[in-house]
């Protein structure tokens, strides 16, 4: 055999000179406005919360012995599990809120539980709001409130505790 036969086996046809170049991908257009600030995300989360149904345990509306808190339906013939039309909605990932504000207080602050004055040291008043622990007595709560006011923190559960002057 000659070398000419081996060379012909691996030859690929060249593309035609008249073929058109591939068009560049079109940029994706969004119908929603672009969300930029935390307040936009918080308002979007409140809109999602309005549409979100109350998730209930299957047939909790029918039997008093079944608590209404969410339990995943696991029965083989469960209409709720197979998502029949007239049955309540089940928990799905699509009901989740925006990632940027997930876990934040509705005011937009991080909700931080405080047990003592030392808990205020490493916090930022512009990002963090404090919640006083229920295990703290009234006198110590007033001390923490005075210190938090000096540092400029927002207190979420101040209630009717008055500042001592």
List keywords for this structure.
165 residues; alpha/beta; 2 domains
Give me the secondary-structure topology.
Layout: H1 3-9, H2 38-51, E1 110-114, E2 128-132, H3 138-151, E3 154-155
Parallel strand pairs: 1-2, 2-3
Describe this structure in words.
- This protein is α/β, with parallel strands linked by helices.
- The chain has 2 domains: 37-102, no CATH class; 103-165, no CATH class.
- It contains 3 helices and 3 strands.
- The protein has helices spanning 3-9, 38-51, 138-151; strands at residues 110-114, 128-132, 154-155.
- It is flat.
- The N and C termini lie far apart (107 Å).
- The domain count comes to 2
Main sheet characteristics = 3 strands, parallel
Order of strands in the sheet with most strands = 1-2-3
Q: What's the total number of strands? A: 3
Determine the number of helices (DSSP H or I, runs of at least 4 residues).
Answer: 3
Percent helix: 10-25%
The whole-number mean of residue pLDDT values reads 86
Order of helices and strands: HHEEHE
pLDDT < 50 runs, ≥5 residues: none
Gyration radius over CA: 30 Å
**What fraction of residues sit in β-strands?**
5-15%
What is the subunit organization of this protein? single chain
In short:
This protein is an alpha/beta fold and 165 residues long.
